[in-house]
Amino acid sequence: xxxxxxxxxxxxxxxxxxxxxxxPTLRAIVQAGICMGxxxxxxxxxxxxxxxxxxxxxxxxxxxxxYQYMSGFTARWKYYxxxxxxxxxIIISGLGFTGWSASSPPKAKWDRSKNVDVLGVELAGxxxxxxxxxxxxxxxxxxxxxxxxxxxxxxxPGFLQLLGTQTVSAIWHGLYPGYIIFFVQSALMINxxxxxxxxxxxxxxxxxxxxxxxxxxxxTLLVLNYSCIGFQVLSFKETLASYQSVYYVGTIVPIVCLLxxxxxxxxxxxxxxxxx
Length: 276
Known about the structure:
By secondary structure, the chain is an all-alpha fold. Helices cover 67% and strands 1% of the residues. The chain has two domains: 1-116, no CATH class; 135-267, no CATH class. A hairpin with a 7-residue loop joins strand 1 (99-100) and strand 2 (108-109). Helix 7 packs across helix 8, helix 9 (177-202) packs antiparallel against helix 10 and helix 9 (177-202) runs parallel beside helix 12. The longest helix is centred in the first third of the chain and has 33 residues, at 61-93. The chain is globular, with a radius of gyration of 21 Å. The protein starts with a helix and ends in a 13-residue tail after the last helix.
């Protein structure tokens, strides 16, 4: 709110002349156009109605899994469009200006309203990265006002804090079964990804570390697109039917990772002693 008031009253970073918002606005508009174009092209090819058609259940496992991936991939472009066009509106107003970079020469920053990093989502190396690149403003709010407040003093955050945060997010989206299932799934997904990341950081062999990094990427790709079916179809029956069609693989894999994480715990690196 303070930033908004400063902007309206021409205070703070807006007290002096600000750079032209034309180019960053055009960039956001072009991105929005590409996103909408891809959505309009892909959505007829991968309709959500297919999940309730007999044809879908006649396909083999890998075909159904691929369709789930493409369904999630297609749906995301709609949100990319919405966030890109809203970002353009904030930038052109001048409110999107956040100051100057520390580079030489300094460059204007217009990321106040940035809500998504498209490549960051589609190429996420870990599910832990997703809240940092998807619906960024809401994720930031949830972190500060829900997640961090659930952490007990003197204790490290765990699965329950993450689950509580995701449950609040589900209720905020709406009381549809698909939302609840998706956000519970997302808590499992993020925690499972943390386990793989800890293994990745614990190994010293570069080849093994690269393999684990790829596994984390593949894990994120699999579980995200499996889970988001619930976010799209919303109904309890259709969500479970789509999950069952691929043998609940996106639920079983995170649970297995969590169980293995309790068995194979990477050794903690010793803390560096302070020089006397």
